[in-house]
Structure formats: C-alpha cells, structure tokens
Amino acid sequence: MPLHCGIVGLPNVGKSTLFNALTNANALAANYPFATKEPNLGVITVPDDRLTRISEIVNPQKIIPTTVEIYDIAGLIKGASKGEGLGNQFLANIREVDALAHVVRCFDDDNILHVDGSIDPVRDKEIIDTELILKDLETVEKRLDKLKKLAKSGSPIDKKNAEIAQTIADALNEGRPARTIEVDDDGEALLKELMLLTAKPILYICNVDEGSVVSGNKHTERFIECVKDESAEVILISAAIEEEIAKLEEYEEKLEFVKEMGLDEPGTNRIIRSSYKLLNLITYFTAGEKEVRAWTVRNGACAPEAAGVIHTDFEAGFIRAQVMKLDDFLELKSEAAVKTAGKLGIEGKTYEVVDGDIMHFLFNN
User: Fold this and answer.
1) pLDDT at 83 exceeding the cut of 90
2) How far apart are CA 128 and CA 75, in angstroms?
3) Which of 78, 298, 304, 359 could, after both became Cys, cross-link 318 (CB 3.0–4.6 A)?
4) Helix (H, G, I), strand (E, B), or coil: what is residue 202?
C-alpha cells in the first residue's frame, strides 16, 4: 500500500529541486516555467529508527523499509482550470495522487525568476487553491445537475445526495476547499466518489533560504497565519540545503552537515514522515532471520487486513496473529523472552493493529 503523494505549486518554487533531494531521481530543475511537463515518479523509503533497532536484535539477512511513491507534478498557473499553460494535463495528474505536498516559495533571490514577478506565498497559495476549486466546482455542478433530475422522482436517497452536492458547491463557490467541508457519512461517500482535487489531504512546505530554515522569515510568518484555520501541517525546508545533503555519499557526512545547519535531521525526513501520516497510515513489522520488514496499513485496520498487505492468501485464510509490542521486544531482546514473560499476544480477527506492532500470522493455505 504505497502512498502516492504529489508535489504541487507554481513554477519555479523549488518543487523539482526538492523532488531530486527526496529521491535522487535527477528530475530537470531549471530556471523557467514548465521545466517539468510530465510527472516524475520517485520511490523513497520512510525513515524509521524502529526498523534499525529491531534489526540490531534479530540480525536479519535483509532489512526492508516501507516506501512512499512521490510525483513531481509540473507547475500550475492562473487559468489552469480552463486549460492555460498545460493546465488540464496537470490537473489530471493531481487527480491520480492520494495526498498533496504544496510547495510555496518563501525566499528572495533575484537570480531565480518568479512566474508572477514577486515573492508572495499567500498569493501563490490562493492561485493554486482557486484553480483546484474551479476544477472541482465544474465536477460538482455536473453531478448536481444529474442529481437534481433524479431527485424529482421522489427518491429520498437522490434528494439527500442533491442536498449534499449543493452544500459542497456552495462551499466551493465561497472559496473553501472540499477538505474543510463538514458532512455526514453519506456526504463523505459522495466526496469520495467525486474524487475532488481539494478534498485530498494536504501538507504545506515553505521553501526558504538557508538562514531561515530554523526560525522562518517574514514570508513564512504571513503564510502560517494564512493557513492557521486549515488544520494542515506546515514544514520549513531549504531545498538548496536538502540538495546539498543528497549529494553527500556517507551517512556521517550528511549528519555533520545537518548539524552545521542547526538541524536535527534532514528536512526530507520530516516531509516523508508527514506525508505518510497525512493519509492516516501506520507501520507494523515482521521480524525473522531472513528479513526484518516494515509494512504499511491504514490506522484502525484489523489483523486480517494487515495480513492481506503481505499476501491476499494471508487475509483469506487468516486464523490468528501473534503480536509482540515493540517496547517489550526491545527490552527483552527476543521472541522467546517475550513469550516467557507472558507478553506474546494471540489475537483474532477483531484485533486492531497498533503502530509499531511486531506480528506473525497463522493462516490456512
């Protein structure tokens, strides 16, 4: 269950530079609009020190982390919802991802052009929001016309769906993204069916100069104030710093460089983890001599669903799961010791997986 996260923003805000740092995929990063035309895809590992700590005890032949698939989507401009630039293509690319990482430019540099001629991350965000909202409004209005016709038949379900669609349309007309609209379960189902661009969970990334990566600057202060009511996370990143870190080959060199910049870890690590959490995903582990591996599952999943992430046969033939809590395993240093201490859980189909669980599944072939 890889997370598909799309990096979006205006041209020349640092999306491709950041993508390169995240993936070392060497996407074209150039000082002119539309340097990226097709979405670049990179597969990146989710940093998780728990995987390392488990492996130090088990000493497996292989260590396999969980991954995130990330797309560098070409920059949007005003009028994209009407096909300006390469608008329709870009918006179609956005529709395919599960979550959005919206990069805004929060640094001054006369040598790097801005498509609108000045640095204003709040304005830039509003441009992207407007284009996505306009496209969503087009989608909703088409569905609303159909639902109104169906509602004339008197079906309570069709009437309610028409009311929900009208509520969504009203909110979009007010400039509110679909993710901010409060609806009931029926409304959630309709939102999911509509696949609205502004319904996707979002992470904001402020691309700053090297001197502002710790404390921010006037641009980030304005931007954080602007999004305070969205319940969205805002991360400060210097794409230039991340690019330099990515060029270093040795882990120790990377660590030293990060410390010199006044950081605890590369900003890319925070982006990956935040993107992972954005879709309400958690990690469980399997551990044996052949491999220690991290697996992705949705938060709230029960044991059979978690087993199905490994193989559909595991879910279909699920009998039970053996579960060790991470802290118990790290303290007692072996499965045998956990079992002797009476802390090896035997769980059935209704067991809800907890982030960090170490699991082994028993199933019928």
Assistant:
1) no
2) 9
3) 304
4) strand
